[in-house]
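ARCHIVE CARD
SHELF: 3
SLOT: left
DATA:
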Amino acid sequence: MRFERRQKERRQPGLNMSSLPDLIFTVLFFFMIVTTMRSVPQKVRFQMPQGTELSKYKKQPNTLYLFIGKPVSKANGKEVDSIMVQAGDQFVSLENLPARITNMKSELLLDEQEDVTVMLKIDENVPMDMVTKVKQALRKAGALKVHYSARMKKTTSKEGEKTH
């Protein structure tokens, strides 16, 4: 008895696409979690002051940012020399700052509203008088935890070595 092989056309099996949607959604969720969007456009020009005794601030969701300095763009075609306060994405006067801070606090979760931290990013040329007025407005709003943003000052020792 003789066995004959049948001449079948051998085809390569098709690609299994059943797990492709799972893979796509996994990658999508990964990028949604990892990506951070800049939530506040900066409208104030500032150069951070320098300091020697600094500590790194751990970013928290209950942090409100205030920028104090001269505006980046021209207003009504005229150069603005006055110092402005930016709370969130808009300029705020000192009189309206407590109401704006209260409004920003109300946008947070209830757990985070009690322990709000205000991060002040202030131009090094802003007079301390303006900073004091901002701090008084923050007290009226009940935001008592204030941090200042600065960069490390590079000092030189007598031997000429740079330390920081």
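SLOT: right
DATA:
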Amino acid sequence: MVLYHGSNVVVERPKLICQTRTLDFGAGFYTTTNKEQAINFAGKVMTRTKTNTQFVSRYKFDIEKAEKELNILKFDSPNEEWLEFVFQNRQGIYIGKKYDAVYGPVANDDVYQTFALYEAKVLSKEQTLDALKIKKLYDQITFTSEQSLFFLNYTGYINTLEV
């Protein structure tokens, strides 16, 4: 499987860094199988960091081998368990089981408003899940342990400003 990571720098050797924001799957190194999603995120990082660079680093990931050796939480769809997991992580209140990696839908800009309405308790869990079913959701794989990062093999990068 090919994974992409969007940033304002090339990341040959991924590492876990302390996050200042609460994210969907908690602290970790975020990747996606969708190159356009990574390009979009690289643009956001460039804007947020006020730099003039944006890159997408590319990796090979043997998910079958990783699933045998790591503790991976996998969400096949934006179901109730996914919604609660993302909600708790975004609120900074997740205290459940720790995983080496988490794989599932990303609550990207297209679904952010729906998710914000759920967080504000305007939408119920059922209304939120119904609304998410009609959205096109990309995926993300978040590596949350040092051990999991060994399964990522850097294969190059794209300077998205030159594309």
